[in-house]
């Protein structure tokens, strides 16, 4: 008996042509007019066939920075600035978090991501094993970073062994999950802990995921304390490598962007969260592009966004760049789309699976992670498709979502939808009671 899984998608449209797509064991094996009839290796694999109904085959989106379980915090502390939002609305409630809160909050996030065409994400949050379990049950992929903070109530060794235990747990999950070392930020993690994080990431071969340069105050404090700007400070600790992603980067200057490009680290911009928390700046994308920095797009957590719909954030990203630069050519549509689909950062798109083709997600050998867009969506009905996706569409144009060759949403129906809403509401009510 064969253990292989085969998916055949028929009657999809790619570049105006009707095509089929075949995947075997989660990897694309053929795309084209004749792909559906191609035989695949293995004896009698379990085959799922679905008719895309003339829907448009599209690369899926990758969310480069979020805190998935924070869907439970949606609608709390909305009118507060960053530090007051953290200190008054978030941290006191996080102290009450139980594993089931994180599980159902993450399931809610995954439901929203599947429905808006995101197939993988970079997460940083507490109770990381609960996040991993939820991601696996939802069928998505995630790189999960249990956060590293300086903890006044624990010794350095206690805190480190706790973190290493969480990373051990994550290593026990299947291929959809991988771990990251995630020091929260330079204003919550001291130099000794950042040095430890660098050593731990190297020892375990893990990426590093950190918030950086979200506010001007963070930059000023870094210069006052360390005598250098944040990117230079991280570089002095050997933290800038091709396996590092920096969330935000709003206040990076040109010299820092050149340093980041030289080291090959990624910057993940979160324009909606930045605007909502009023950080008084815009990630300098034109300078980053000129320097050659790998760039990704993230939503940040639903507590500070409040949506996980990357297509709506993509429009905000492109508009903010044009507006901030007073230049309608600040970001080409094709670049904006490539960034949202993870194609401008191999680290982000590969989601912990290095060596897979990241630059073209719809190609033979790539993971079978893609979407089928609704051919009847008014937003997609006339004009250039990339323009429609960047400037007109929201996640509702996504009809089907496929991850690892498995159909997670078919005609906008996701298994378990009702239960996820019910359980997430119960968990949120408990936290805020
Ligand atoms: Zn964040």
CATH architecture of the largest domain: Alpha-Beta Barrel
The CATH topology of the largest domain is TIM Barrel
Oligomer: single chain
Quick one: overall form?
A: globular
Query: So, the CATH homologous superfamily of the largest domain?
Result: Metal-dependent hydrolases
What separation lies between the terminal Cα atoms? 53 Å
**What's the mean pLDDT score?**
94
Strand content: 15-25%
Cross-sheet strand order for the largest sheet:
5-16-17-18-19
**What's the structural domain tally?**
2
Helix percent reads 25-40%
The residue ranges in which pLDDT falls below 50 over 5 or more consecutive positions are none
Please provide the count of β strands: 19
Structural class: alpha/beta
* Count of DSSP-assigned helices: 15
Largest sheet features: 5 strands, antiparallel
What is bound: which ligands?
Answer: zinc ion
CATH class of the largest domain: Alpha Beta
Radius of gyration: 21 Å
Question: How would you describe this protein?
Answer:
The chain is an alpha/beta fold. It folds into 2 domains: 100 residues, Urease, subunit C, domain 1 (Roll); 290 residues, TIM Barrel. 38% of the residues lie in helices and 21% in strands. The strands form 5 sheets. It has a 5-stranded antiparallel β-sheet with strand order 5-16-17-18-19, with helices on one face. A 4-stranded mixed β-sheet has the order 3-2-1-4, with no helix packed on it. Strand 18 and strand 19 form a beta hairpin. Helix 2 runs parallel beside helix 3 and helix 11 crosses helix 12. The longest helix is centred in the N-terminal third of the chain and has 17 residues. The radius of gyration is 21 Å and the shape is globular. The N and C termini lie far apart (53 Å). The mean pLDDT is 94. The site of zinc ion has 6 residues, from loops.
